[in-house]
Amino acid sequence: MTDLGVAVAERRAQARKLLGRRQRTVATAPRLTEVLRGTLLERYVRCGKAGCHCQEGLGHGPILYLSVTLGVGRSQQITIAPEDQTMARRLVHNYKRIWEILEEVSTINRELLQRRLLPRAEAETASHARPRQRRRRPRRTPDP
Ligand SMILES: [Zn+2]
Questions:
Q1: Which pLDDT does position 134 carry in this prediction?
Q2: What is the distance in A from the centroid of ligand 1 to the CA of 45?
Q3: Dist. CA 80 → ligand 1 center (Å)
């Protein structure tokens, strides 16, 4: 193979490697419907009832809260029912994971762009894209 041929083959291999990594990264992404922004906090509370055991020790709990910032100086806290805790933890984790994945994919795309390996045709990037319908050529009928 010529030097040029080797260089082209190497570039193709690099591109394939990066595109493969990008595809594998995206494949691990949680569903976009299963996300929740916020921080989970556990707290113990004292109910204030006379003679309640919570007056000693940690208090009632742990009670799980979701704390979410809604703007400058604005935040909301929601108490999470015990039966929703597993799902809430999962959604909060997914939210962070999706940001990590976006960052990873963006880094790969930056590398592809910098090395001028970024695929330009949509077909190369969207493997799950709808296959193009083949157009059938109308059959010519012989003139009468
Ligand atoms: Zn109590």
A1: 57
A2: 8
A3: 19
62 alpha carbon – ligand 1 mean position (Å) = 12
C-alpha of residue 50 to centroid of ligand 1, in Å: 8
Question: What are the sequence ranges of the domains in the chain?
Answer: 3-118
- For ligand 1, a single-atom ion, the residues with CB < 5 A are 47, 52, 54
CA distance 54 to 47: 7
Q: Please list, in sequence order, all residues whose beta carbon lies within 8 angstroms of the beta carbon of residue 67, skipping any fewer than 6 positions away.
A: 38, 39, 40, 41, 75, 76, 77
Q: What is the pLDDT of residue 43?
A: 93
Spacing, Cα 52 to ligand 1 middle (Å): 5
pLDDT score for 136 = 61
Phi then psi for residue 83, to 5 deg, are -70, -15
Helix (H) / strand (E) element for 124: namely helix 122-125
Closest CA to 15 of 123, 108, 95, 128: 108
pTM of the prediction? 0.73
Q: In the prediction, which pLDDT does 57 show?
A: 86
